[in-house]
């Protein structure tokens, strides 16, 4: 099933019962003008362009709890370190024989080479397996074409914007490869399991006792950096992480970078300006009180 909707509000339209390849072959990208300013770009991305989720939802409100499974791997290729042609050629080589869809994202051309890659899976996957597949793609298959990974890719209910025609991109850049088969999930996960086992230098049971014995509030604080958060409690969590790290004498500059990392794991990340405003508000209180 394919669910279409805007980033805001997080309400999706009734599902479309088509394969992802069928959907994109019939899809007509809208034409938009991408503003030069960040505020205009954000408004376009959140309220002006449709996005989608491929899989199964139990309700049409987009949040992690409502997404039952995904059946396509969707990756944002933002920090690209090669040319557009090299990126396309690399993806085509690595995914030879597989179905995939590749198209420029809204920021392509304005912020360098930016693409979105969609890879249909041969079976539905849960959140744990989805994250594992993303890690394999980013660390093994795409490591030569991108520098860093946008952590929002790992948000379970992340919506991905559909292609559009801008002053920097055209319809011909939407590449649809029908291929001979979908990505074999179990084969890829088995490869990852075997590869990890070979690299492991210490037995897992060596750490089991310590892992449960030494859990405390500091453990929970550091786990909260990558735990994610739904809308409605994001500022509170940024404030809590800021206060907790500063109270433990973590360097102020490092704290700011860490809360920005935590923000990328939110279902809907806050703007950098809002994160910094919350950070400075808490930091001012904590540091003046110390």
Automatic annotation (TrEMBL):
Where in the numbering of this chain does the Primase C-terminal domain appear?
223-288
Q: Which Pfam families match?
A: PriCT_1
How is this protein named in the record?
Answer: Primase alpha helix C-terminal domain-containing protein
The species this protein was found in? Enterococcus viikkiensis
What lineage is this protein's organism placed in? Bacteria, Bacillati, Bacillota, Bacilli, Lactobacillales
């Amino acid at each position: 099933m394919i669910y279409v909707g805007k980033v805001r509000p997080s309400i999706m339209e009734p599902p479309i019962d088509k394969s992802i390849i069928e959907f994109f072959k019939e899809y007509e990208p809208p034409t938009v003008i991408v503003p030069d300013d960040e505020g205009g770009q954000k408004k376009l991305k959140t309220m002006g362009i449709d996005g989608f989720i491929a899989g199964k939802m139990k309700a049409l409100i987009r949040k992690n709890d409502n997404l039952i499974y995904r059946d396509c791997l969707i990756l944002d290729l933002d920090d690209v370190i090669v040319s557009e042609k090299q990126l396309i050629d690399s993806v085509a080589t690595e995914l030879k024989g597989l179905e995939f869809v590749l198209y420029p994202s809204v920021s392509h051309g304005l912020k360098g080479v930016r693409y979105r890659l969609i890879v249909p899976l041969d079976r539905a996957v849960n959140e744990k397996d989805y994250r594992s597949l993303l890690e394999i793609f980013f660390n093994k298959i795409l490591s030569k074409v991108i520098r860093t990974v946008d952590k929002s890719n790992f948000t379970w209910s992340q919506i991905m914007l559909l292609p559009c025609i801008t002053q920097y991109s055209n319809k011909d850049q939407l590449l649809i490869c029908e291929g001979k088969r979908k990505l074999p999930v179990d084969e890829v996960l088995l490869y990852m399991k075997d590869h990890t086992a070979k690299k492991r230098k210490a037995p897992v049971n060596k750490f089991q006792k310590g892992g449960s014995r030494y859990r405390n509030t500091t453990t929970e604080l550091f786990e909260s950096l990558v735990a994610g958060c739904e809308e409605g409690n994001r500022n509170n969590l940024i404030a809590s992480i800021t206060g907790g790290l500063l109270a433990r004498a973590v360097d102020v500059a490092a704290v700011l970078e860490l809360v920005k990392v935590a923000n990328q794991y939110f279902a809907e990340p806050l703007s950098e300006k809002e994160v910094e405003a919350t950070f400075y508000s808490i930091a001012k209180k904590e540091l003046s009180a110390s």
